[in-house]
Write a structure and sequence with these properties.
It is found in: Cell membrane; Membrane. Conversion of 1,4-dihydroxy-2-naphthoate (DHNA) to demethylmenaquinone (DMK). By secondary structure, this protein is mainly alpha-helical. The protein is built from 15 helices and no strands. The chain has helices spanning 2-8, 13-16, 18-29, 38-41, 44-72, 85-88, 93-119, 124-143, 157-178, 186-206, 208-213, 219-223, 225-249, 263-275, 283-314. The N and C termini lie far apart (52 Å). The mean pLDDT is 86.
Length: 316
């Protein structure tokens, strides 16, 4: 059990649910058709299965990454980060493959239940669309490093993370509640996507030397360490700006800028990356950035709940 928990990479899980939290709380703070009661807006079963589905996708991606890199020999003695399960031999490739299949099925089941609680027996086209999106998410999580045409080995991992853990996570769950698309939500959704890419970029910066030897052509391998740092600054700073713009457009009150507290660890993180000279020293920054993103999502959610409370007071 200890080795399976390590293979699931718990430090990545808070990051994966950040979009679900923001998308759900936005639905609560911006009810459609002037419906203002929490029970009419917020569905705990929908929220729960959205969290379970996202966690399933993240764990599936981690298992598949361990399997794909392990079978390709990318995880070897040259790797800077912590040893992976297949690399160290504590989990066999056959057992990991079974885990990938089981996790895929459980994630699909969770996604189906999520879709059912969102649409029931109405909106069949929405149901089919989200089912196809769920299947695509599962396939994409596996194909990141598994197979001869794994897109993570061609530098497309950043796109996958931005789309699925930023846009799809945040906008998708909000649509399940509201049944409509709100363009302003693109701002925090993109911010979470960019910060999620930042975590992947840190991982790739740490593993640049071993990835280069293994022909894993991540963006960091393609552009080099110096430009990868600039790319990282762009990801984090742009995300911070997008959330502030979202707050301004949404007419947040002064006390709703509580989310700015999360900018303190984010700024410290950027300083640490700027000063860094040794790839191995970047490993702790992965956890820091992931938890800072999670903290930002929680604080932003609280700010939106404050806004919802104001609506209740003003309409009572």
């Amino acid at each position: 059990m200890k080795h399976w928990i390590q293979a699931a990479r718990l430090r990545t899980l808070p990051l994966s649910v950040s979009g679900i939290i923001v998308g759900s709380m936005y639905a609560l703070a911006n009810p459609t058709d002037n419906v203002l009661t929490p029970t009419e807006v917020f569905n705990w079963r929908l929220f729960g299965f959205a969290i379970l589905t996202t966690l399933g996708l993240q764990i599936l991606s981690n298992f598949a990454n361990d399997y794909g890199d392990g079978m390709k020999g990318t995880d070897n003695e040259d790797r800077v980060g912590p040893k992976r399960a297949i690399q160290s031999g504590v989990i066999s490739p056959q057992a990991m493959k079974r885990a990938i299949i089981i996790t895929s099925l459980l994630t699909l089941l969770s996604a189906i239940l999520l879709i059912y609680y969102a649409f029931a027996d109405t909106n069949i086209w929405y149901s089919l669309f989200f089912l196809a999106l769920g299947l695509l998410s599962i396939v994409s999580a596996i194909r990141y490093t598994v197979g001869n045409t794994a897109y993570g080995y061609r530098g497309y991992g950043d796109i996958f993370v931005f789309v699925f853990f930023g846009l799809v996570s945040t906008l998708g769950v909000n649509f399940l509640y509201s049944k409509q698309f709100d363009f302003v939500l693109l701002l925090p959704a993109s911010a979470i996507g960019l910060l999620s890419v930042g975590v992947l970029n840190l991982n790739n910066m740490r593993d640049e030397a071993s990835d280069r030897k293994s022909n894993k052509n991540t963006i960091v391998v393609k552009i080099g360490a110096a430009k990868a740092k600039k790319y990282h600054y762009f990801l984090v700073i742009t995300a911070m700006v997008l959330v502030v713009v979202f707050a301004l457009i949404s007419h947040f009150h002064f006390d709703q800028y509580l989310f700015l507290l999360a900018y303190i660890p984010l700024t410290k993180h950027l300083i640490n990356v700027y000063k860094n000279q040794f790839p191995k020293a970047l490993d702790p920054e992965l956890k820091k950035l992931a938890l800072s993103t999670f903290a930002l999502s929680i604080l932003l959610a609280l700010c939106m709940i404050f806004f919802f409370s104001d609506l209740l007071v003003n309409n009572s």
